[in-house]
Amino acid sequence: MSTFKEIGTAARMAIFFWIACGLAYPLIFTGFAQVAFPDQANGSLVRNAQNQVIGSSLIGQKFTSVRYFHGRPSSIDYKAEASGASLLAPTNKVLIERVKADAAAFEAQNGTKPTIDLVTTPASGLDPHITPAGAAVQIARVSRARNLAPEQVRKLVSQYTEGRFLGIFGEPRVNVLALNLALDGIRQ
Amino acid sequence: MSEGLLQIGATLVLMVAIVPFFGAYMARVFQGQSTWLDAVFVPLEGLVFRLGGVEPERQMDWWEYARAVLVSNIAMFVPVFAVLLFQGSLPLNPNNIPGMSWDLALHTAISFLTNTNQQHYSGETGASHFAQMVCFQYLMFTSAATGLSVGIAFIRGVLGRPLGNFYVDLTRSISRVLMPVAGVFAVVLLSQGVPQSLSGIAEAGLVEPYQTTTDGKTETVTTQKLLTGPFASMESIKELGENGGGSYGINSAHPYENPNPLTNLLEILLLLAVPTSLIYTFGVMAGNTKQGWVLFGMIFLLFAGLTGTAAVSEYFGNPAVNALLGSANANFEGQEVRFGWAQSALYATATTSTMTGAVNAMHDSLTPLAGGVALFNMCLQVIWGGQGTGIAYILVFLIIAVFLTGLMVGRTPEIFGRKIEQREVALASIIFLVHPIIILIPTALAVGIPGIAANSNPLYHGLSQVLYEYASAAANNGSGFEGLGDNTPWWNLSASVVLLAGRYLPIVALLALAGGLQRKVPVPETPGTLRTDTVLFGTVTAGTIVILGALTFFPAFALGPIAEYFANLAGKTF
Prior knowledge:
The complex is a heterodimer of chains A (188) and B (574).
Chain A lengths: L2 H34 L1 H4 L3 E3 L5 E4 L36 H18 L18 E2 L1 H15 L3 H10 L1 E2 L10 E3 H10 L3
Antiparallel strand pairs in A: 1-2, 3-5, 4-5
Helix pairs in contact in A: 4-5
Chain B lengths: L1 H29 L7 H15 L9 H25 L15 H12 L9 H4 L2 H30 L7 H26 L10 E13 L2 E10 L5 H9 L20 H25 L3 H28 L2 H7 L14 H14 L14 H13 L8 H21 L4 E2 L2 E2 L2 H27 L10 H16 L14 H31 L15 H35 L5
Antiparallel strand pairs in B: 1-2, 3-4
């Protein structure tokens, strides 16, 4: 085969797959997605009664008030336009100092020690979940701030606890945004 | 701990269950036998061959095959490099992302071309929707197909058959293996919440606005900017093709890329599917499935042992953090609640053993032993190994093991009826030695020249970060200890050299080795022939892999993960 022909074949095959895999496949798939799964395709957005977008059911938000359950600390403050993590090694003293400060702040606010998910930053900085234990240690504070019976809040937490997939895969978890929206929905 | 080990075990059972079916299917595809979608594929592939000027019946010799790999890969590089440079003024860029600097564009294009997907940019802020499609999704298919083709050609050569035609293998890899599987799983991932849109950022009004202080200025944040894109179609080929380049900077830890335990399970199975099944494919093509299972079993045991080590290490967590909280906890820094320690450890070993490089937890924050396992996987690069290249490297180790045992028992070493002579041993040694050379020498340079390594972590872990970066580039893996400040000309250019050397030197040597073996006159099997399909020989091969790999990298490991492990146990921080 001549060199010229070899290069010609390589170039034509490269262009063909550029069009097929790089353009046609994702564009056709986008068309399909927008028709078949428009909600998921556009980010699983959550809307309020006025139809305004108030978040995504998959993405965590920052909560600071004592009236709400708090998510995990985030190294990007839950700014979703640029995901990010602390990238600190287990032997880094910056990590240990941060955990110490966050644990002390939590104890001052809640009168009990935090669970580990509440003092470690997630990989994405956008973790929508806390562990059921991480929710349990906040129940007393939230029910006091809202003048609700702790039992009522506990019931709500267990209602919003998701289990493992097929009872095997992943970990039990509570979606903080969904739980807080449900709290706001309760009449006092 | 039992719930965690159960989910790891269940995933491994599913992984093994896929192998005979997918492996047999790939053997049919690459031996040109009929498969169930022939009615669609035969005319379609015929059209592709006519458009490309490919003569599908024409067999290539090894040098022709290697040239086709190199020239076609150069042709694929050109449009990708151009789009990355000029994405700022190209269409489908609703978030106004500017073009990349030349060194970043070069590194990124080479990284995706070599099936590595090491990313020195951050997905959501560094690449337009257009680039995510025509650069990344394009190369995710073609680079995976290139590797798969080389692996199949190598198998053919080792078995004494003609190597085949690169363009036919490339096309069949995409049309019959990668595209159908990736397409089906893209739908499942989409249904679970992985986005697929071409629109820009959606602003959400926060339920509770909050104050934030940056540089002494306090502002109130009232909205959250939710960024989506054509990502479900990328996610499935990212895993299946052992690519690993995330649509988002934080990869499969991002809730949009990996929303729940089901998607996590599927992603793990997808990224393991091709390299595990190819070992069985080899057995089928050799007409000796027992040989396939012996090789599979040997790699499986190594993989299970390393996964177990990483999982147990994550389970016992960080002693310094646990002392502060006064309770026993698994490691949680850099991990997501929906996955926890077990799925994080499993994903970390699966992605580094298969040269995928996608992550669902930050490897930089793994416990020292789990991070060390991830690093070790990339240094060995045969515990499953890359797309197509994995099985080829396993067979190279088999050749080295046959040679060593041949020396020990004083017999002429043979493999599959072909004598192993000087040329084969020389090429196998080159394939083995390229890897440590292009990892250890750049690492020594980067830590030796002051001011180059911009680490987020000091001392032992700092060395691990540099070592990890080059091991990941050399193995064409792509994951990272991401605290390394790596978007600088030094890192972009030095990693580019390592990426190219780690990809194309072994590919050319592999094809040369296959071509040489194929031309040899077969020697008939006698009762004196050393059998390679026995458990004993599998054990010898596994021992060869571990001893050669461990001896080569042990000094570097002693200064990095191992030293950090003991420091961590003693509760020391730096």
